[in-house]
Amino acid sequence: MGKLSHIDENNRPSMVDVGDKTATKREARARSVVILPPSVLAALQGDEISTRKGPVFATAIIAGVMAAKKTHELIPFCHPLGLENCRITIAIGGDAGNEAIIECTCRVHHKTGVEMEALTGASVAALTIYDMCKALSHDMVIVETRLLSKSGGKQDFQHAG
User: Fold this and answer.
1) pTM of the entire structure?
2) 17 classed as catalytic
3) Domains in the chain, start-ordered, CATH in brackets?
4) Contacts 24+ apart (CB under 8 A), 56-59
């Protein structure tokens, strides 16, 4: 079993020192899923995908990218990263066809990974969908936020599911 990386030798919270690490290409992809009730799903059908608050998916994509770029301001020990790319996609799908499936992919050349940026981008996009659609129903559920893959750094990761 590994040890926690954000605890120093005196068992205190600490930022990881990446000063001696080599910068490499790093990429991470995360997913958040929002289950939509029929009233919200109906409002998001067609070309508009809009509510009275505006275009839901476009706004969620913008919010997710903004959040990914500010991850270090939200998560105490995350290093500030100059993301080279952050791409968010949103599609309606799932077994019942009632899920907003959000995927966020972040890429950077750096000494530390971008998993938290991808997770933050996907999460905030999901929260934005909830916020923009809550006037239609509060029965939406954000059921999953997970890392799907990462590459670069010590070891790669690919979610098995």
Assistant:
1) 0.88
2) no
3) 24-152 (3.30.70.640)
4) 56/128, 56/129, 56/132, 56/133, 57/90, 57/100, 57/129, 59/128, 59/132
